[in-house]
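Reminder to self: tokens first, then the designed residues, so the page reads top to bottom the way the pipeline ran.
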């Protein structure tokens, strides 16, 4: 191209073409025809010819592309120069792998599992420890989303987990045990069991088929209700405050806590076989697919998300801890909504202690809205999330490429030790010291209002105990200003 341009500059701008005819796709130049030649005129192509326009256009495009590359390079250089001082020098790059991180924790003292701003959660402590252990780079230490952080199951305030799972892109240094190092930065009530390399598209929540929870319940919850005397003023400093939760006509009363004699009686209580059978039968009714709008907050009967599928519920034989009798309830469900398990446990316990027919429970899946109290969070723990479909696919692919499955049983021994030391033992200690279940039973016995009138020998739900919320109140009959939501 350079030779052509130099030749054009050497030639006069006007001359008679004496060469032979040049044949082109769209025009010809005949011998002896006088024409003007521009500096850009080459090989018989005029400035306005389609071929020439195409060449010029390509040249501009290349030049613009080169300019963009130069600008991009300048920006990259500038960004490197402007790296924040508090981050220090850039760390050596360590290869990342998508992993399933298996963890366990005692939830006492934490505001639940999930990361939230200005909240002391299990994940916030775990994430910080992983940054310190260089399992997550400091460059990504300001935002978990940069590591594709996702949990399999959320747990509420005070709820424990023998096994939970987090998927993320994790750095795995080769010169030390990264799991051991992460645990060195964690309090003893939060542990990392290990990790499993997984496919890049692995998502802890979306690929989790089901979850297994466990609830520990003292059998004194089956005792006949104790009638409480309510007063207008407190008798003792630690009296329970009892309210009817009615905004229009609020009523506040006070109830004394259990006497030492009643606490000891509850501690020594032994459930009858009939009570154990009734409770187990009541919990079995929750199996299958049902509308659980009465077992959560903020959902109406018409919402599809109120439907949940429970695969199995099994109640253990009584076990004895420090002289107190307990039962363990294992609940295996596809997924659970907020407070669902605690309300299910409470309903099973209520019909057992009040001799209400268990035929009441199917009626709670219907449209009528009733108030079901929550059993204490103290007894609830996540046993483990299940990834059956994912594991089955990995077993099939293992014939072609080596694939790992998500299996908590790989860490069974250490998980059981942790469960005994940091979950079971702490639950029993908390009950002995703080009398959590005793306070719960006392609040039930001192309840104000007609909310629990569905606990009757007929197992019917009378109109007097129906509650009205913004989720079941007819919209046309009331304006937004007139709505009063019942707190259940």
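Designed residues (488 positions):
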């Amino acid at each position: 191209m350079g030779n052509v341009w130099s030749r054009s500059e050497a030639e006069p701008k006007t001359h008679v073409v004496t060469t032979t005819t040049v044949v082109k796709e769209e025009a010809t130049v005949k011998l002896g025809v006088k024409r003007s030649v521009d500096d850009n005129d080459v090989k018989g192509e005029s400035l306005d010819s389609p071929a020439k326009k195409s060449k010029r256009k390509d040249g501009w495009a290349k030049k613009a592309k080169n300019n963009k590359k130069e600008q991009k390079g300048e920006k990259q250089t500038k960004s490197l120069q402007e790296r924040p001082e508090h981050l220090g020098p850039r760390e050596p790059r360590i290869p990342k792998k998508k992993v399933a991180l298996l963890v366990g924790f005692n939830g006492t003292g934490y505001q639940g599992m999930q990361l939230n701003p200005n909240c002391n959660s299990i994940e916030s402590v775990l994430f910080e420890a992983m940054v310190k252990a260089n399992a997550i780079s400091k460059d990504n230490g300001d935002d978990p989303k940069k590591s594709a952080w996702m949990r399999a199951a959320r747990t509420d305030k005070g709820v424990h987990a023998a096994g939970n799972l987090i998927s993320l892109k994790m750095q795995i240094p080769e010169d030390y045990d990264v799991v051991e190092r992460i645990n060195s930065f964690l309090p003893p009530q939060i542990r990392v069991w290990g990790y499993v390399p997984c496919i890049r598209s692995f998502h802890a929540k979306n690929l989790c088929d089901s979850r297994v929870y466990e609830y520990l319940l003292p059998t004194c919850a089956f005792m006949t209700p104790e009638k409480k005397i309510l007063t207008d003023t407190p008798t003792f400093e630690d009296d329970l405050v009892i309210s009817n939760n009615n905004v229009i006509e609020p009523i506040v009363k006070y109830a004394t806590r259990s006497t030492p004699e009643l606490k000891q009686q509850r501690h020594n209580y032994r459930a009858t076989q009939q009570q154990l059978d009734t409770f187990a039968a009541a919990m079995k009714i929750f199996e299958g697919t049902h509308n659980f709008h009465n077992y959560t907050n903020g959902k109406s009967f018409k919402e599809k998300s109120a439907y949940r599928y429970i695969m199995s519920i099994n109640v253990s034989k009584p076990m004895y801890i420090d002289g107190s009798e307990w039962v363990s309830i294992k609940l295996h469900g596809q997924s659970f909504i907020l407070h669902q398990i605690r309300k299910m446990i409470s309903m099973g316990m209520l019909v057992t202690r009040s001799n209400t027919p268990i035929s009441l429970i199917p009626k709670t899946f219907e449209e009528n809205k009733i108030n079901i109290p929550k059993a204490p969070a103290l007894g609830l723990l996540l046993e483990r999330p299940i990834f059956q479909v994912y594991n089955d696919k990995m077993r099939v692919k293992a014939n072609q490429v080596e694939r790992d499955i998500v299996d908590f049983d790989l860490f069974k021994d250490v998980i059981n030790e942790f469960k005994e030391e940091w979950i079971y033992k702490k639950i029993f200690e908390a009950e002995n010291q703080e009398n959590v279940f005793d306070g719960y039973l006392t609040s039930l016995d001192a309840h104000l209002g007609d909310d629990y009138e569905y606990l009757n020998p007929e197992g019917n739900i009378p109109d007097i105990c129906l509650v009205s919320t913004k989720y079941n109140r007819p919209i046309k009959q009331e304006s937004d200003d007139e709505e009063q939501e019942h707190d259940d």
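The chain has eleven helices and 17 strands.
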